[in-house]
């Protein structure tokens, strides 16, 4: 995993989360700019996923649990498209909140992916 991409992804997803929360608070559905920002974050997620898969195939792979890493990787690339799809179908203030929740989930999962890649957490925790 590329540390700089992890930082950019976590930051961009956090900005998208705040943007979604502000729009929901103002009673506005997500506009085209918010949806395009979400699509850009998703594109960067796909790049990071490709880098991670190449790293697993060509290199040593994650220092933590490979099963846990692959599970997170498969899930994180699906969360934002689901939230953005919901926002496109249901155009009300709550769809902005859905984008915010999806963006928060992506930010948290990207940091967790990085943690598992670096070997910070093992399955079962201490003493397992």
TrEMBL record:
Q: Where are the transmembrane segments?
A: 6-24, 36-57, 69-89, 96-114
Swiss-Prot/TrEMBL keywords: Membrane, Transmembrane, Transmembrane helix
> What name goes with this protein?
Integral membrane protein
